[in-house]
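ok, trying the design again with the full structure, not the truncated one.
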């Protein structure tokens, strides 16, 4: 799906004419939120499925090698062993989809996962996360260093200025360079949708990111005031669908920021299932960026198995 620069202008003129029907998007979002969630064993099954989509994340200023170690152990053993045995799922190899850390912590994460015998990917944020307001040369070097340290997925942030000022060709050019710097690593492009100004801009930025070679498009950094919301997700999912119809290429989707409860995760799974179908419900094409979500999922599974809610000391720290 390489849209070379000489052919890009044709697609840019098509993209510039796009308008998103805002009221229709909001109506669709309300439908999703009004759904009754699944219950009992069906809920437990969907929650275990949700665990396998989580990019278990820590992006704090006080991250140290010891809490990266704990994060990696939790990624390998996301749900307590006895709870999985009660559900007869202890031998299914349930882990999170990846761990996501700052570039300086990639070495720690690679080492910690190796120590627990786990081969899940290490994702690193890059390109001046979360604001993306550093020189392009620095942003590209950050990607290269993270890949050298062992990151196999790179979550880049786009330069929001280019979207807000309508510089679509420049945005395409930057993401192409990110793609090249990633080499074999997967490129996940964070649109920071809360800062793009309109749903129409969200659609256009999604399209440009996919045309430039992103493997995933991601809603937010988790550091904005508005993060993953259903209206934004609907627009991004429709862009993924349109791109698939035009090119035959499947691009992944990753909501991130503010997804904290098990109930939220079920709503996101059902949205992706309805908009893109079951083939997108696999870690290669769907991720959830979260740090506290896993604890709540484990609490709900504990409740399903034992009939009571866990006390704080019943479940291991994540």
């Amino acid at each position: 799906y390489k849209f070379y620069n000489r052919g890009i202008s044709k697609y840019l003129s098509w993209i510039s004419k796009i308008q998103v029907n805002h009221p229709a998007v909001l109506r669709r979002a309300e439908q999703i939120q009004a759904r009754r969630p699944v219950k009992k064993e069906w809920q437990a099954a969907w929650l275990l499925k949700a665990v396998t989509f989580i990019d278990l994340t820590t992006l704090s200023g006080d991250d140290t090698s010891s809490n990266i170690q704990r994060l990696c152990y939790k990624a390998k053993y996301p749900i307590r062993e006895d709870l999985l045995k009660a559900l007869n799922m202890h031998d299914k190899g349930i882990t999170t989809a990846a761990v996501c850390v700052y570039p300086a912590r990639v070495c720690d994460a690679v080492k910690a996962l190796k120590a627990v015998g786990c081969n899940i990917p290490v994702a690193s944020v890059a390109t001046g996360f979360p604001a993306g307001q550093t020189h392009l040369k620095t942003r590209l070097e950050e990607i290269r260093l993270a890949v050298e340290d062992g990151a196999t997925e790179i979550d880049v942030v786009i330069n929001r200025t280019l979207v807000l000022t309508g510089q679509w060709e420049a945005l395409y050019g930057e993401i192409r360079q990110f793609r090249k710097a990633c080499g074999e690593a997967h490129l996940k492009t964070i649109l920071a949708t809360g800062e793009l100004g309109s749903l129409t801009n969200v659609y256009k930025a999604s399209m440009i990111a996919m045309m430039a070679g992103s493997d995933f498009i991601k809603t937010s950094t988790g550091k904005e005031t508005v993060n993953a919301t259903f209206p934004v997700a609907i627009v991004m999912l429709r862009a993924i669908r349109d791109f698939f119809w035009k090119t035959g290429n499947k691009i992944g989707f990753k909501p991130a920021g503010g997804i904290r409860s098990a109930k939220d995760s079920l709503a996101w799974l059902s949205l992706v299932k309805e908009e893109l179908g079951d083939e997108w419900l696999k870690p290669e094409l769907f991720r959830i960026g979260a740090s506290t979500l896993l604890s709540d999922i484990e609490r709900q599974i504990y409740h399903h198995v034992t009939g009571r809610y866990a006390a704080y000391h019943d479940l291991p720290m994540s």
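Keeping the full-length input from now on. The chain has 13 helices and eight strands.
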